[in-house]
Specification:
Layout (H helix, E strand, L loop, with lengths): L2 E2 L8 E4 L6 E3 L2 E6 L22 E4 L6 E9 L7 E9 L2 E9 L4 E9 L1 E2 L2 E5 L4 E9 L2 E7 L6 E7 L3 H5 L2 E7 L6 E12 L10
Antiparallel strand pairs: 1-2, 2-5, 3-4, 4-16, 5-15, 6-12, 6-16, 7-8, 7-15, 8-9, 9-10, 9-11, 12-13, 13-14
Protein name: DUF1349 domain-containing protein
Length: about 200
Amino acid sequence: MTELEIPELPFSLEACGPDGDWAYEDGVLTGRTGPRQDRFVPPTGEALEPASDAPRLLGSPPPGDFRLVARASVGFRDAFDAGALYVHVGDHAWAKLCLEYSPDVPTVCTVVTRGHSDDANSFAVDGESVWLRVSRSGRAFAFHASPDGERWTFVRFFTLGAEKETGAARVGFLAQSPVGEGCAVTYDHIDFRTGAPSDLRDGS
């Protein structure tokens, strides 16, 4: 499978990186990562060429501001197993909003890569599911997470480059298992809306 059409999205998705066994049925997107697959460029040394990789499913959204939403569920097995929403501008310019076993508690985590990756934990999650949202606002992106898809917690606001580069960004889904033997990920309640949140910090 190289491309996948999801009715909730106004753009097609292309499988990138290792095989993720991506499939969509009845509103549910499923994927799987293999052993020791991750998308990360350690900040402690030289940038890797190529960057380490993990299964991704990416597409080009329409021009302008948008919000991509999905509830992520992960079959956790090992530390740092995760499902994520992902933004890609270039080989060393990308970001991910993860539900991650970090290292033994489900946690909302973020990674922003500009040459090298950073790594930040946000808050612990009760259970194996959480709602994730990535928004584009001009040349910037925002990450939010929610336990119920109603009230959103602000997680991060950042840019990955100039406005022209941001406008060409691809977005989608990622699965990872950096130190483990692989895990399954599920995304449902997928939604795409034009426009960015009017206020990043008011819970809307």
